[in-house]
Amino acid sequence: MKIAFYGSSLLSSWWNGAATYYRGLLRDLASRGYDITFYEPDAYERQQHRDMDPPSWARSVVYPATAEGLRSVLSEAAAADIVVKASGVGVFDDQLIAGIVEHARPGALKIFWDVDAAATLDEMRGQEDHAVRRALDSLDLVLTYGGGPPVVNAYEGFGAARCVPIYNALDPTTHHPVEPDARFTADLSFLGNRLPDREARVEQFFLEPAAALPERQFLIGGNGWESKNMPANVRHLGHVFTHEHNAFNCTPLAVLNIARDSMANIGFSPATRVFEAAGAAACLITDAWEGIEQFLQPDEEVLVARDGKDVAEHVRALTPERARAIGQAALERVLAEHTYAHRGAEVDALFKAEMAGRLQEVAA
Predict the structure, then answer these.
(1) What is the pTM of this model?
(2) Which CATH architecture has domain 182-337?
């Protein structure tokens, strides 16, 4: 089956946290026989900061971020069996969701794939004419990369025919243990772009513990932090490319996950970084959110912090031996239950069931 996938970027993780999610899932689906074309706009300097060449397992189409460029790629939707519009493309989002409804051929499966469902739902609650709300009646399926029952209930309450969470996971071919790299030496490291709905939580869970532990070394990676006032024991790296993630995760005593506001509030939303860190056998400390035990067992495979004081206490108490034990246990758990092969099998079965249901309807 042919998939036309309209997303933010497959080739660049520059201001694009969904990149590894797209790569892991689509690579697995390609291995299952899907013929995939990924359409991404030339926007936000992502093409100037690529960290991946066009892959062998998907056709990559980069289109100008213009009305003409949009028309040229939407016209290709008619050739696909499955047409996907992801959230957060960043340009022409409203036109894209309407465009896949208009241009998909009769019988094609039309999907909205939401990689930030909590934020999208907040927008939809406040805008009756929201583009996604308008399109739901014409879509066959909503997929999300997190959110659990609260997101499913919300989407179906808005009229989605069906909503299914497809969680982040690990691609062990790209994220795995490596030798430490002195560039990333620290007691606690955090990787994430500076975003309005994350910054206050970074202050609470990362910068406050750093200030409380002046004798310890803290490291922050990601775009946007260069203008942020930080304690003297915090070192800022700037953008960390995906090929550096393994060393970034393997080198420090522990790494920190901090959910964005909306994801922390709704729960059941492990970030890609959770699985990347676990895949590198890193000792992960995460802010508390509902559903964590569905993915990693607290105190055995992950350390959970309710606030900055908890983070500081974890760092104080952590020995290299315990950090290694927690990281190894996390690696074993995600390899057993949370790889993109697991997620790809789930999506493959879902697509085939949906398409089979359509054939039965036609036959009837």
Answers:
(1) 0.92
(2) 3-Layer(aba) Sandwich (3.40)
